[in-house]
Every structure is written in C-alpha cells, then in structure tokens.
C-alpha cells in the first residue's frame, strides 16, 4: 500500500458498526469536517454522545450495500466477520474501503498516527502486526512530545511569512534552514525573538 494523506472535508463517510471499534474510527475522524453516518442495530453510549456532539447521522439497522453507494470512504467495523466480508465484496472498486478486521479485503487502512499541530507522523504494518504498530506509535509519542506542537505551528507561520518576502530564494532557504535549530522547539522565548526579527524583514 502507498502512504497517502487525504483531505476529507465535506466528504461522505459511512461506518458500518456501532461498537468500540466503530467509535474509535469515528473519533479518529473527529475534526475532519466530513459528513459521517454510522449504521448498526445498536450503538454504544460513546457513539451516541459523539454523534450528538458532532452532528453525525445514526441509522439503527443492519447496514446494506446500497448504504455505501455514494460514500467517499466506507469503514466496515461490525463485530461479525462475515458481514464485513460480504459488504466489502459488494462495494465498487473506485471507493475507498477500510475493513477493520481484515485489511487485505479493503484498499485503505488507518495508520497509527502521532499528531503535533501541523506535524503528523503515521506508521502501519499493513495488518501484519498491530502490536508492532502500537509499539512504534508509543515510541513516537515519547520521542515527539508536546513541545513539537508549538514548534510546528511556529514553523508553519514563519514559512508563510518568509515565502512572501521580497528577497532572493537562496536567502529564503537560509532563513528556513535556521529555523530547524532545536532551540526554537525548546524555547518559546526563542521563537518569539525569531518571529520579531523575521517581522522586521521586508
């Protein structure tokens, strides 16, 4: 599989399932500004609360193939292996399909991701070893602590400003390279001082 980040804003996403795994997938998609529908005979309290908070649609019955007709992304997360398998076979090849209990039956998977502001680091074993994926995510969580959130936001702001400066491209690249010094990650004062300097440039 090819790693790929996708903008899901205003996309239709249909999740078959109303249990713990379906909730986890819906929670992962929280904040994507997508149109999310969950279909299942029953839903956990967590899903009901999340749906009410975010305006997700809940349909209380068994999922049918036609429910996924116009879905940009289909997530098959029922707790019945045969149901997920049958639904996967019924979907069109052009659709993105995640089968939570058998990655090979779909064409999309959810990697374990570490998010620190604009910075995202994703890792997957393509279903070969979920335990390995969880272990690597834990290591990444520890390596990229919360200091990277403010730092990555700082880098994004500086890059946008530097791009607009009326200076030679070589000078822009030099300024951008300087920002990779670790002191800007570790110190908010250093970031503020650097931003004040950059703001003085025209």
From TrEMBL:
Gene3D superfamilies documented for this protein: NAD(P)-binding Rossmann-like Domain, SirC, precorrin-2 dehydrogenase, C-terminal helical domain-like
Domain of life: Bacteria
Assigned EC number: 1.3.1.76
Pathways per UniProt: Porphyrin-containing compound metabolism; siroheme biosynthesis; sirohydrochlorin from precorrin-2: step 1/1
Claim: Oxidoreductase is one of the keywords in the record: yes
Keywords assigned by UniProt, alphabetized: NAD, Oxidoreductase, Porphyrin biosynthesis
Protein name, as recorded: precorrin-2 dehydrogenase
């Amino acid at each position: 599989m090819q790693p790929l980040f996708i903008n899901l804003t205003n996309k239709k996403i249909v999740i078959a399932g109303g249990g713990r795994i379906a909730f986890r997938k819906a929670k992962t998609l929280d904040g994507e500004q997508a149109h999310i529908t969950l279909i299942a005979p029953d839903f956990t309290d967590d899903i009901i609360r999340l749906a009410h908070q975010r305006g997700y649609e809940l349909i209380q019955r068994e999922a049918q193939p036609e429910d996924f007709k116009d879905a940009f992304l289909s997530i098959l997360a029922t707790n019945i292996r045969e149901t997920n398998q049958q639904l996967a076979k019924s979907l069109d090849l052009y659709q993105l399909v995640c089968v939570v209990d058998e990655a090979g039956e779909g064409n999309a998977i959810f990697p374990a991701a570490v998010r620190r502001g604009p910075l995202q680091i994703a890792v997957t074993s393509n279903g070969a070893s979920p335990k390995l994926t969880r272990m690597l995510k834990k290591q990444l969580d520890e390596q990229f602590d919360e200091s990277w959130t403010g730092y990555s936001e700082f880098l994004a702001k500086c890059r946008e400003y530097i791009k607009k400066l009326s200076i030679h491209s070589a000078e822009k690249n030099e300024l951008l390279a300087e920002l990779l010094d670790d002191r800007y990650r570790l110190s908010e004062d250093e970031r503020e001082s650097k931003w004040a300097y950059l703001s003085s440039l025209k």
